[in-house]
Amino acid sequence: MSNIETLLEDARRHYQRADLHRHFNADMDRVTKAQVALDAAEDTMLALSNYESGGIGSDDGEKYLRLYGCLQAVFVQQDAIRELHRLFVGDFAEPADISAWKQLRELRNLTIGHPIEKGLGKQQRSRTFITRVSLRSDGFDYQVWHQGTGNTSFESADLSALYATYEKEAALYLKKIIAALSCVPDISC
Questions:
Q1: Separation of alpha carbons 49 and 85, rounded Å
Q2: Domain boundaries, the chain
Q3: Fewer CB near the last or first residue (10 Å), C or N of the chain?
Q4: What are the distances in angstroms from CA 49 to CA 103, 163, 165?
């Protein structure tokens, strides 16, 4: 069991005893946002744990499906953690661009979120494709065409290392959320 799984279980224990209705002054928008965010964080953890234990698979179609699912699960988990942090701790300071949190988010956006055309508005457009033969459980290679230069760059994603670092970063946010949840009054019997 990963550290994030353990922390999410701890958050769920606090959540189940907490009187969120009273904590949020009967604001059902915030109560339901907290409910959905915690559920989403836990559900994505199930998907990510499955990816970690089962790898990427052997069939090309399965590899793409599992890679897309892994990156999307991280993206949704980040959104859930961000919302829980905002609800229980307060403002969420965006992680630095060099953080694994941001790098995984950008990798998802670039490779599976907007591969055909990323960078609208003031950003230079890019187009990305994953090199199929490179798909493996710990990462993959991809190529990015850059509109500004007309050049193609060849990149490599070390998914295992990024995810391991991301878990540590996410754990820091979850610990703050749990500390705040521990101060929420209990449900009155």
A1: 22
A2: 3-114+159-181
A3: C
A4: 20, 11, 15
Q: How far apart are CA 77 and CA 89, in angstroms?
A: 17
Confidence of residue 17 (pLDDT cuts 50, 70, 90): confident
The answer for 184, left when phi > 0, alpha when psi is -120 to 50, beta otherwise, is beta
Could you tell me the maximum CA-CA distance found in the chain, to the nearest angstrom? 66
DSSP string, 63-125: HHHHHHHHHHHHHHHHHHHHHHHHHHT---PPPPTTSHHHHHHHHHIIIIISSS-B--TTSPP
Phi then psi dihedrals of residue 174, to 5 deg? -65, -35
Q: Is 152 helix (H, G, I), strand (E, B) or coil?
A: strand
Look-up: residue for tokens 């609208």?
120
- Report the DSSP pairing between strands 126-130 and 139-146: antiparallel
pTM of the predicted structure, to 2 decimals:
0.92
